[in-house]
Amino acid sequence: MFAFVVRRAAYGFLTLLGVLLLLFALFFLYASPHEMARRAVGEKAPPEVLEQWIANHGYDKPKLWNPEHPLDTLLVDHFRRTLSFDFGRSDADGTPITQRLREGMGPSLALAIPSFVLGLLFSVALGLFVAYFRETYIDRMGVVLCVLTMSISTLLYIIGGQFLLGKLLRWFPISGFDASPSVIVRFLMLPLLVSLADGVGGSVRFYRTVFIEEGSRDYVRTARAKGCGDLRVMTHHVLRNALIPILTRVVVAIPFLFTGSLLLESFFGIPGLGSMTVDAIHGNDFATLRAMVFIGSLLFIGAQIATDVSYTLVDPRVRLE
Amino acid sequence: MSDPVLVVRDLVTSFPSARGRAAAVDGVSFELAEGEVLALVGESGCGKSVTALSLLRLVPKPGRIESGSIRIAGREVLSLPVSELRRVRGKEAAMIFQEPMTSLSPVVTVGAQVVEALRLHEAIGAAQARRRTTQLFDQVGIPDAESRFDSYPHQLSGGLKQRVMIAMALALRPRLLIADEPTTALDVTIQAQILELMRDLQRELGTAILLITHDLGVVNELADRIAVMYAGRLVEEGTREQVLGDARHPYTRGLLRAVPSLGRRGERLAEIAGVVPTPQERPIGCRFSTRCPVALPRCPTDPPGDTPVAPGHVVRCHVVAQELAR
Amino acid sequence: MEAHVVSNLVVALLLAGAAALAIGVRRNDLWRASAVELARRRPIALGVVGVYLAVALLDSVSWVGGGDAGAGGNALDLHRPRSLIDRAFPLDLDEKSYSAPLASVEFYGGAPLDHPGRHLLGTDILGRDVLHLTLEGTRVALLVGGFTSLIVIPLALLVGVSAGYFGRRIDDVAFFVMSTLASIPNLLLLIALIMAMGRGAVQVCVAMGVTSWVGFCRIVRGETLKLRELDYVQAARALGVSEPRLIWRHILPNLMHLVVITFVLLFSGLVLFEAILSYLGIGIDGSWGQMIDQARDELARDPIIWWNLAAASSALFALILAVNFVGDAVRDVLDPRTLRERQ
Questions:
Q1: ipTM metric
Q2: Which of A289, B51, B325, C227 has the smallest CB count inside 10 Å?
Q3: CA–CA separation, B4 vs A77, rounded Å?
Q4: What are phi and psi of B13, to 5 degrees?
Q5: Which residues numbered 242-301 in A keep a CB inside 8 Å of some CB on B?
């Protein structure tokens, strides 16, 4: 088991290096520091200003190979610094990125974790419910509802939610964020509800399929023949066996907790990592963006390793490898 | 003579087909006495598995039991509320299935699955349940019962899995065991072992067994009585000696002739000409008439009634009835 | 070559390709039966998709010249390429600013409009006719979905089949590349690509293509692995059939049902994705997503302006819903189990 984790971690690290390489290729080779300077300072800026910008940001080195000091290149810098979590300063306003990352994590998690947990519980329960009534009126209605809700763009959920619940009914503030414990829930409720509404369609459909497939298996028939009631069949047999596909879907969604829902955070004015990323887009802030992609990938790879490990816990057939 | 453990009268179970609903089980009636082994025999698709599933109302949707009566230990199964039905399942009547590979939950140990069966019907503690399970494993011939308790299904061979299924089915000493092709998916050598096990247990516990099978060899090993099914209906019923030794119905005779035997080497394998009719193609009268070598003109249009040939030996065939009338 | 000439050529090619496809499907019994079955199951959804396709095609055929600038129009506009859809609207149709659907006065201030009652869906902040904008958005949406899929599917097929069939080194490399791309959360990768490549329509499509091909590629690779081990493929190899021929005649045709399913399902995801990109400012000009983005603030006004948002959202929703319904039906119809039965 330990060997397994080590192997997976090693491959994950290799993949991470691949990601760094891709980032380098994109942001230093394809879009050169000159490009970046021009976009940051302005198309019509005189060359000296551009050079100054490049020097300020430490981009005034050879990219791949430096004849004088072989390792003093942008490439090595990029790898070395990113892997040591030294993300430097923002290209847009010069603030240290690592500090902003730390500041942004709190609000992102405050929204992401409840939305993840509630979304999961809600979707699984609904999926079980609809799967139990398979082939009946309830099931068919459920599937149609799922397809309908899946076809609505996230943007519309946000705009609709803001309009209906914020402006019309005035239940919640339209946007904004206040971390003080007494008020924080009010600001989070709306984005939370919107995120639930947005995700429920696809998830319920997925879980329904999984539960129906498991429910039609032979061992369920055996359980019934033993005298198991429907509830027990669903919870002890179907759910337990459905955990594997469910886990896959769930664990892979975890990194998004951090990178935050870009849309939700920026629409609702929540100062998390997601809105940081959106600001980076608008401000042509390549440095921050590189940092976000790296963090996102790191988390994603970590989550995948976690999924593989969790499979062994959940499925005895995988355990003895 | 005590009441029969199982009484089935005019059972009809249907499935949706291209044109309306087709009856997979079309008016089947039979009885099973206490401690008796009845083999329900027929080729694939004749409806014998559906009959077995109907007994405990396990027919998968969109199938449906249309009409009839099923009495297990005196209780009418078809009108039981679900809570009562759950109490019958596993305790009064238990069932084992054809595919041991997929019939056990892969994520639960085999011991725990048997314990589940026990604790569904009896209020016993975990430790005691474990002891009883290990005893059962011993009884069904699972070596190393104590450590096998914690094994997962994928760690066991097909034969061992089937033994677990038998242990689970007999854990609560049901009066009726429904065995749906229990040995079909197993290797021939394992088949023999399982059959022997079933025979020993049957004698020991006095359980009545409804054995569903297409394999006449299996029938010979275990059955006291045999019922032959074709295209949803029973065509012949009698004791083992009567049906195997003195088969009257043309279909039964065809089946027996088709079994290759060492004594007839060099001969061409006998077969029954034609194929089983689809529900749409079934004649109104005798369903075998389309393939019957001795069919009379009235056979396709006139459903044959019960013709007793000997005490306990009943055949449904106009040809046989006609012969007896002479 | 100018943009509109390219687009005309592309449309011609697409139509030719579609005709060829239709002929091919008619000849092949299996595919014809599947197509008939699909039409039987989802006539309405298919009809809706067909209407959208027609509008998009009409909007893609454009040329310069002809027409009349009209009383309030700008004669320079006559030198811009205008599509068949464009020509259905008079050149000088623009008002000064907002007006409600079928209104005869401006929304703010009440001044009389130049074309009272002619704007079925009202006008936007710049006075442009919302119906016209919505129809133009159709072309963008289908461009996004179709063009990107055209990038994704051949790429995924190429890499997936090579990896699955030839295995070992090629597979390892392909697998590594796929893992790397798959480790980056989609939206982040997309943003990174667009920021590096620039914000044109083609770049956006390419970026979306790069983000979307891995999933399908994995499926193709898995299927190819299975197909390679099938008896009749082994037999063909033993008989000495050359590898390219093997792949072309035995492996690829058996992947086609996956291609169709993936194409339809990918399509709606891509169009929805583009809407999000528009909000972030990196979408394609003229898309419904952009309309929605611009209309965001309009709901906050008092009295609210709803027609812009409603038009774009409804158009988007109807297309996605129809495609989703068709996609589900396609998946059922092309399910290998039912395919075998139909044979």
A1: 0.86
A2: B325
A3: 87
A4: -125, 130
A5: 243
